[in-house]
Amino acid sequence: MAGFFSSVFSWFSSIFFSKAAEISVVGLQASGKTSFVNVIGSGQWSEDVVPTVAFNYRKVRKGNVTLKIWDVAGQPKFRSMWERYCNGVDAVIFVVDSADPEKFGTARFELHQLLSQPSLVGVPLLVLGNKNDIDGHTSVKELISVLELQKIQGRAVSCYSCSMKSQNNLDIVLRWLADRSH
Ligand SMILES: Nc1nc2c(ncn2[C@@H]2O[C@H](COP(=O)(O)OP(=O)(O)O)[C@@H](O)[C@H]2O)c(=O)[nH]1
Ligand SMILES: [Mg+2]
Q: Separation of 49 CA from ligand 2 center, angstroms?
């Protein structure tokens, strides 16, 4: 009976009480991190995004979920800061430009470097293959292989193909984030 009441209570809580998640968005420069934060924050796509210096912080409310988002710069000199912003978050989003295969090697290196940090053990990872509106973009299956996502252990890992420009697949991204909220 106690189990019944606690499950009814958690059902009520999920409807009436807001949930929150703190997330960090990392990845190489120009992959679309700031566009992602802008699109989920305001629903607005804009072609002109100012390159991020160091980081941006934004709080976004979607339904009963509040997302606190660190958007960290991707230029080489800022990559050593990623770990600091990912430490203690509920999820890490790693954005890749799926239409720019020349950068996959660097993206793979930086991703695995970041995940090897002891402070990030167990933190769930969502890899976004962005810019799928561009012809010839790389599929999820290929991204999993080139980024060696199958080698990642000890954490939840998901990979979706999406586009900030056409807002493709952002609904499943938001659902994934809602599932990491508490
Ligand atoms: N075609 C296309 N371009 C995108 C998409 N997302 C971002 N961009 C463009 O990619 C460039 C870099 O985006 P930005 O958000 O600044 O990347 P960041 O450096 O990772 O924050 C900008 O010119 C954006 O307009 C997308 O889904 N499709
Ligand atoms: Mg940016």
A: 7
